[in-house]
Write a structure and sequence with these properties.
The protein has 309 residues and is an alpha/beta fold. Helices cover 30% and strands 21% of the residues. The protein is built from eight helices and eleven strands. A nine-stranded mixed sheet has the order 3-4-2-1-5-6-7-11-8. A two-stranded antiparallel ribbon has the order 9-10. Strand 1, helix 2 and strand 2 form a beta-alpha-beta unit. Helix 3 packs parallel to helix 5. The two termini are 36 Å apart.
Length: 309
């Protein structure tokens, strides 16, 4: 039986203070307090910026501008063309075309995963970036959308290579006009800068995120013009519903017409769909190995018990 570890009261106070950002009370001292030394400015992070909409899409260009303005050293390594919906695809062709159209920009003729792989191997050869940011995507990547998202796929490619990663997406559950979504990318990136600052502060000199963990961030479109402020931030999980339902119609000539409809079911409590639907920013931790929890492992073991080859 595992023994419960009981923390001393002082330790509990310090842990709580660290979480809520307040200083614990301490006993008074006869010695006059010494003014704290000014904090040294944080070194800029080296960021590999990718996406699935293409290296010249509004979302990635706005992300480059905002993250650079925040003091980070940002390099775009992204698909040459739109690769939306490619998920975690990685090419296996013997050659790949890569263009270098301007300083700090590399365009890879492949998927987001190909772009991240090239960036880590060549652009950041010998010294991995501190962070990979994928996005911001044009539209949400919640629920089943995340499973097939190239934006999320780019982040997963980084995480499985041991590099901290954040997938960023901008969009609500309805489909606003493109201008409104582009406007909402401003608040999305403002939040991304705050999130990265928080990660850097908490990490101190270590990695920004625990090994094998990435973040899937979905920012809603708020206000008629998209420039409104989100109602808050929620830690969420990926809602299990699929959202998009394809329908195939036989044309009779070997081709099939494909219609895709949005089929929204009630949102899972605590999931990303619920948060975005309420105008909140959804932050979902994710891993790259697709392992499930111990309970599922036990269920599977019971299922195959007694089976023989």
């Amino acid at each position: 039986m595992r023994r419960k570890r009981v923390l001393p009261q002082a330790t509990l106070i310090l842990c709580t203070a660290a979480l809520v950002g307040t200083a614990p009370a301490v006993a008074s001292s006869p010695t006059a307090p010494t003014a704290p030394a000014p904090a040294a400015p944080a070194a800029p992070l080296r960021i590999l910026l990718t996406n699935d909409d293409g290296y010249n899409a509004p979302g990635i260009r706005k992300a480059f501008e905002r993250l650079t303005a925040a003091g980070h050293d940002v390099t775009i390594v992204a698909p040459l063309t739109n690769q939306s919906g490619t998920g975690t695809k990685m090419s296996n062709a013997p050659t790949i075309t890569v263009k270098h159209p301007e300083p700090k920009v590399w365009a890879v003729d492949g998927s987001p995963g190909d772009s991240v792989a090239f960036g880590l191997s060549e652009v950041f050869e010998g010294r991995a970036p501190d962070l990979v940011v994928s996005g911001t995507n044009f539209g949400p990547n919640v629920a089943g959308l995340a499973s097939h998202s190239g934006t999320v796929g780019g982040a997963v490619a980084a995480v499985e290579s041991g590099v901290p990663a954040i997938a960023l997406s901008t969009g609500g559950l309805s489909v606003p006009d493109p201008v409104t979504t582009v406007n909402a990318m401003g608040p999305t990136l403002d939040f991304a800068v705050k999130l990265i600052d928080r990660l850097r502060t908490r990490a101190k000199s270590g990695p920004l995120l625990p090994k094998g963990v990435g973040l899937n961030v979905n920012h809603p479109v708020v206000g008629a013009d998209g420039k409104g402020t989100a109602a808050g931030v929620s830690t969420t999980f990926q809602d299990p519903q699929t959202i998009l339902e394809p329908d195939f119609t036989d044309s009779g000539d070997g081709t099939w017409k494909v219609d895709v409809t949005v089929d929204m079911r009630p949102a899972a409590k605590g999931g990303d769909v619920e948060a975005v639907g309420a105008g909140r920013i959804a932050v979902s931790p994710m891993n790259a190995d697709w392992n499930t929890g111990p309970a599922d492992h036990a269920t599977t073991s019971a299922l195959i018990a007694g089976l023989r080859p």
